[in-house]
Amino acid sequence: MLKTRGDVLLYIVVILAALAIGTIVSLINGSWPDFSNIKFEKAWLLFPAVVLQIISSLTESRGYRFGTITTVMVNGAVFVFVFLVIWFNRKYAGLWLIGIGALLNALVMMFNGGRMPVDISSLSTKAYMADALELIMKGADNKHVAINSATKLPALADIYSVPGFLGLGMPLISIGDIIIAAGLFLLCLQFMLKSRKAKTVY
């Protein structure tokens, strides 16, 4: 997934849509959504993953480029923490989809020096992506690399354009990102259905 300041816009829209649908379903059944019964195990494991991402972004913003080994180690560690959280909470079907999507993203990144390949030809026409494009072209982006003839598994790379206003924050996504978005939608619905069921039992 191409990182920009609005890179989570698609996921936010997906989550809000799931919450809206879940709320409507709950109201139809005569109750309000109640998330107090949701149990999310080992969520603290996401903290080191976030810290590593922040360090990588700060390093990148100051013009420092990670070597291939460092990039693989940092991004690999992030995925390990994420997969651990998914494993400890595998009872949620939505997390399985999120895990599959994350695995596809991890796979293409690990096969390309720890960076996500990006179709830069689709970014050249977007003025607001000028800074990000420049970093990629210089090889100074610690998370992305331009697609070329040597790119492995290009079908899993960031090559799919996001339509409409969603593209303002996330102009290109991968198959893995699409699956992650579907998983987030399902996870939010599952949370709401679970809470409604728990409320009915008690």
TrEMBL record:
InterPro entries xrefs: DUF5317 (IPR035168)
Top-level lineage group: Bacteria
Keyword Membrane included in the entry's annotation: yes
Keywords (A to Z) from UniProt: Membrane, Transmembrane, Transmembrane helix
Membrane-crossing residue ranges in chain numbering: 6-28, 64-88, 95-114, 172-193
Protein name: DUF5317 domain-containing protein
